[in-house]
Design a protein that fits this description.
- It contains six helices and four strands, in the order αβαβααβαβα.
- The chain has 215 residues and is of the alpha/beta class.
């Protein structure tokens, strides 16, 4: 499946707090929509068949800019799918996976708390809508027309309960969403190039794009 991958080098916290990462990422979509990209993309680029994809914090960004994009006319750009790879969500509550997986590699609850404190507005808590997507202060997305969504979840990722709540929230909002749960998957397992799970992950993402995004 030939494709063009565009990676967004968005500014990061703590130097650049909320909502800079979202603004920078959305600016990339507006660039794609504009004529500014004509000299940078090959002539074979088909803007009518785009997929937003991100891992960890990038998965969080996909949700937020995907919702914004769905409420605007970005023609000729058309987003056919969202792929959220172990998205970085959270909330004030400590979930069972955060409590039980205290020795999980890569991400701990303390590290996640620090990242949210560094990114969210001063004095905001983790129920801020940027963090807790379907929390008490979150926007209602039931009226937004979102494309099909794939969410990948790892068994040994402390964020798995928030990711599963996200899937459930999309379903309750009437959105088309697929979830794939990887037994033994740590946060970021897909980056282990020769790992069996990583190979399965790549195949699963390929299949989702082929099936739902009409590539």
């Amino acid at each position: 499946m030939p494709c063009i991958v565009i990676s967004v080098h968005y500014r990061r916290s703590p130097e650049h707090r909320y909502p800079i990462a979202y603004d920078d990422s959305y600016a990339a979509l507006k660039w794609l929509q504009s004529t500014d990209q004509i000299h940078d993309l090959p002539c074979t680029a088909d803007l009518s068949r785009c997929v937003l994809m991100g891992d960890s914090a990038g998965g969080n960004i996909v949700h937020h800019i995907g919702c914004k994009a769905a409420m605007e006319d970005l023609k000729p750009l058309s987003i056919r799918g969202h792929v959220l790879i172990q998205p970085f969500f959270g909330g004030q509550e400590r979930t069972p996976s955060e409590i039980l997986l205290v020795n999980a590699p890569i991400v701990s609850s303390e590290q996640a708390d620090w990242h949210w404190k560094a990114y969210l507005p001063p004095n905001a808590d983790r129920d801020h809508p940027a963090c807790n997507i379907f929390g008490p202060r979150a926007a209602d997305i039931s009226g937004i027309s979102l494309p099909p969504t794939l969410v990948t979840v790892g068994e040994l990722d402390i964020l798995q309960d928030w990711q599963l709540r996200y899937v459930n929230g999309l379903q309750k909002a009437g959105k088309e969403v697929d979830k794939i749960f990887y037994e033994g998957g740590i946060h970021g397992f897909h980056l282990l190039a020769h790992d069996k799970l990583a190979k399965q992950f790549r195949s699963d993402v390929f299949d989702f794009i082929q099936e739902h995004c009409q590539f």
